[in-house]
Amino acid sequence: MARYGILVDYEWCSGCHTCEVACQMEHGLPTDRFGAKLFELGPWQMGEKNWQHANVPLFSKECDLCRERTEKGKLPACVAHCQAKCLTYGPVAELASELEKKPQQLLIVP
Description:
Layout: E1 4-9, H1 18-27, E2 36-45, E3 51-59, H2 67-71, H3 77-81, E4 87-91, H4 92-99, E5 105-108
Antiparallel strand pairs: 1-4, 1-5, 2-3
Protein name: Oxidoreductase
Organism: Raoultibacter timonensis
Domain 4Fe-4S ferredoxin-type: 4-34
């Protein structure tokens, strides 16, 4: 049986926090617990015209990839509601092959 995960293209994450809210609502989590949590990296300047700034959603042990949703053929709540469409759900082997196509991605296998 294939393992599933989430590929995060953090180059395009807008920092909207929708993944956090969708996860909390789906699982009934209190406001201080998260299955998905957005972290901000930067901003800081690296040279005259180059800046480091990224929003990176990470996943806690609360994340079960929305097992109840995915068993019904639906996407995990965070993926379904991601406004920037920077989260992709699928088999780990397929997602891993996408990592080689571009930098600034992160493969999450909760």
